[in-house]
Amino acid sequence: MCLAIPMQISQIDGCTARCTVQGVQRDVSLFLLQDEGVEVGDCVLVHVGYAIQKISTDEAQTRWELFEQMHQQEIAGA
Fold first, then answer.
1. Closest Cα to residue 22, out of 48, 2, 46, 51?
2. Tell me, what's the pLDDT at 74?
3. Distance between terminal CA atoms of the chain?
4. Fewer Cβ close by (within 10 Å): the C or N end of the chain?
5. Alpha-carbon span 27 to 19, nearest angstrom
6. Is the dihedral of CA 22, 64, 19, 41 positive or negative?
7. Alpha carbon of 39 to those of 8, 36, 68, 71: distances in Å?
8. What does the DSSP assignment read for 5-58?
9. What is the pLDDT of residues 18-57, one digit of tens each?
10. Domains of the chain, first to last
11. In angstroms, rounded to a whole number, what is the distance separating the alpha carbons of residues 52 and 30?
12. Which among 59, 53, 55, 49 has a CA at the least distance from the CA of 27?
């Protein structure tokens, strides 16, 4: 199973973006989204260092809420 993490773009330098989520920053390739017109402040799904899809801020928040619910269920079941 593959998992893409929603992150917010905080800086762009060419085809590389500095993305942030929950205080963690990563450099991410924008190569696959060259024609999408991503900008600072946009949210993207990140998989193995590549932004693979631009998503809305609301969708990113919803995904993080689902991840948190799964984490809480895992803790409760452990």
1. 46
2. 82
3. 22
4. N
5. 6
6. negative
7. 10, 9, 27, 30
8. EEEEEEEEETTEEEEEETTEEEEEE-GGGTTT---TT-EEEEETTEEEEEE-HH
9. 999 989 999 999 999 999 999 999 999 999 999 999 999 9
10. 5-77 (2.30.30.140)
11. 8
12. 49
Instruction: Read off the amino acid at residue 27.
Output: D
Is the predicted pLDDT of residue 78 greater than 80, yes or no?
Answer: no
What is the C-alpha separation between 63 and 30, in angstroms, rounded? 21
What is the chain's length? 78
In terms of Cα–Cα distance, which of 70, 69, 17, 7 is closest to 43?
Answer: 7
8 token code pair: 């917010």
3 Rama class: left (phi>0) / alpha (psi -120 to 50) / beta: beta
In the block, which residue shows the tokens 């085809």?
A: 15
